[in-house]
Specification:
Distance between the termini: 46 Å
Number of helices: 10
Largest sheet: 5 strands, mixed
Bound molecules: zinc ion
Order of helices and strands: HHHHHEEEEHEHEHEHH
Shape: flat
CATH architecture of the largest domain: 2-Layer Sandwich
Strand content: 15-25%
Helix content: 40-55%
CATH superfamily of the largest domain: GTP cyclohydrolase I, C-terminal domain/NADPH-dependent 7-cyano-7-deazaguanine reductase, N-terminal domain
Length: 220
């Protein structure tokens, strides 16, 4: 039987990391049941808003349900999966690693509206490193579910600290929040910056300054 993309990825996470092995059929049933609940809820919202059932809206409840489960759900702990492969690399100990301009996309938990931006992650290894592409995957995984920007940076920092035990980690997020653009104050230009620091970056202003100066320097 052909399995959808989300089934494969949820199964991978669930089977590898959560102890009990979920069977293929059980995963499929679970996903179907969750999507059905979301689909009905979205249909109810549209009805309450007195939207007429036109062609464009006909499959909207299904599309939203697919999107919520496939793109936003935290089923199977996606963050943990991205940190499962850590390399031992003594030679890099003490040298700064900065991965910059990682695309960020998440949904704010206050309004269920998207916020998007970029993330810069710096850390100083102490014998353990993470493959570079994993940082982008980590940001994508951390952004799943409904979040707030303030907590997202801390979540990424803490996950890296736990997996790599580096000398320090610095996570900077710059994001534009749709909930500030399409509703409320309707300010299309505001951006929110947050930084989450640990270890040497929290304790030593010079270490922080090195990252900030690299971020200011010209791009490739
Ligand atoms: Zn919001």
């Amino acid at each position: 039987m052909v399995r959808s993309r989300e089934e494969v990825s949820i199964a991978r996470r669930t089977m590898g990391l959560n102890g009990a092995k979920a069977t293929r059929a059980a995963i499929k049933r679970d996903i179907k049941a969750r999507k059905s609940v979301i689909e009905q809820a979205v249909a109810t919202i549209l009805e309450a808003m007195d939207e007429e059932l036109r062609d464009g809206l006909e499959n909207t409840p299904k599309r939203v349900a697919d999107m919520y489960i496939d793109e936003f759900s935290v089923l199977g702990d996606p963050l943990k999966d991205e940190l499962s492969t850590v390399f031992t690399e003594e030679a890099s100990s003490g040298s700064l690693v900065l991965v910059r301009d990682i695309t960020l996309a998440s949904m704010c938990e206050h309004h269920m509206l998207p916020y998007t931006g970029i993330v810069h992650i710096a850390y100083i290894p102490q014998g353990k490193v993470l493959g570079l592409s994993k940082f982008a995957r980590l940001v994508k995984a951390a952004g799943r579910g409904f979040t707030i920007q303030e907590r997202l940076g801390i979540k990424i920092r803490d996950a890296l600290d736990a997996a790599l035990k580096p000398l320090g980690t610095m996570v900077i997020l710059e994001a534009a929040h749709t909930c500030m653009i399409v509703r409320g104050v309707m300010d299309p230009n505001s951006k929110t910056t947050t930084s989450s620091l640990s270890g040497i970056f929290r304790d030593d202003p010079a270490a922080r300054a090195e990252v900030l100066s690299l971020l200011r320097s010209s791009r490739l």
